[in-house]
Amino acid sequence: MLLRNCAAAAALAALTFVMPPQNPPATASPQTPTPPPAAEPGGRGQGRGAGRGRGPGTFPAQQRPPGDPAIIERGRALYGVNCTSCHGVDLRGGQLNGPNLLRSQLMLNDQEGELLLPIVQGARAEKGMPPLPLPPDDVKAVAAYIHSVLASAQRQGSPPPGPEPILNVLVGDAAAGETYFAAKCSSCHSTTGNLAGIGTRFPDAKALQNFWVSGGRGGGRGGGGGGFRGAGPPNNARAVTATITLPAGEQPAGENIEGRVVRYDDFLITLELEDGSLRTVRREGDKPKVEIRDPLEPHRALLGVYTDKDIHDVTAYLVTVK
């Protein structure tokens, strides 16, 4: 027993000497952090996303010098003939379900077509990419074009910048719009009265369409569409007004409170009276009785009835009202 205890003690002592001493963790001294390396001139790391770990400039393998404009232009033509049906005009996938080349890891890491060439030659034929009869120089030109689009994109996966698209809303039938206007709008509006010359007042058809669909209020930020705010003074034809009928004993018999609605919720209603003063009345459930008159309510009701064709037809008609 004694020998066993002695042997165990010796083994423990040997183990203690074999284990290296544990040094306490060193305390880092304060120092100025090293700034990240700047992007190379002409590299793709400049601009949005550069230096933040999110843009292609963070990854050296995805940086490349600008391509030759002549080669890029030739690659654009080759791409249009050989690639658009699968990968789309904007490289984001076409009618034949080709992959999005703006998100392709292979294209992001390719430099001069060296990764693209085997694919074009048939390396992925079993995955639906047939071989194309393009010589290596043509594949290199296509790769240069794809890289030029990637370099101009605002962020990975976005289409390249281009001119602002012009939305043409004049696609309706003016005669059908006149018929629809007579049936749905003429009870409140007239092209010889409050809408006289509307086609001249709004030379931009899109602005005209937004105007009449919203009832002239506009909507959105700064457009006066925020609830009851911006409805104008009580004599404004578009002002939201109300009549409050107080319970018996709280007002002279037969008299009501009338004015423009400034605030209206489940607890309070505030009206601006004709003399400009404000009157606030507390509400509890359906008491007191409140009758709201909103001139734009018919427009809101029609929002669930209009079809796209109706809107385009009426716009096409109103454009002709000079």
List keywords for this structure.
322 residues, alpha+beta, Cytochrome Bc1 Complex, Chain D, domain 2, SH3 type barrels, five-stranded antiparallel β-sheet, 5 strands, disordered N terminus
Structure, described:
Strand 2 and strand 3 form a beta hairpin. Among the domains are: 92 residues, Cytochrome c-like domain (Cytochrome Bc1 Complex, Chain D, domain 2, Orthogonal Bundle), CATH 1.10.760; 51 residues, no CATH class; 79 residues, SH3 type barrels (Roll). It is elongated. The protein is α+β, with helices and mostly antiparallel strands and 322 residues long. 33% of the residues lie in helices and 9% in strands. Strands 4-3-2-1-5 form a five-stranded antiparallel beta sheet, with no helix packed on it.
Topology:
Layout lengths: L1 H17 L50 H14 L1 H4 L17 H5 L6 H8 L12 H17 L21 H11 L13 H4 L3 H9 L27 E5 L11 E8 L3 E5 L5 E5 L6 E5 L3 H6 L5 H12 L3
Antiparallel strand pairs: 1-2, 1-5, 2-3, 3-4
Helix pairs in contact: 2-6, 7-11, 9-11
Spatial gap, N to C terminus? 117 Å
The profile of the biggest β sheet is: 5 strands, antiparallel
Mean pLDDT across all residues, rounded? 75
Number of strands: 5
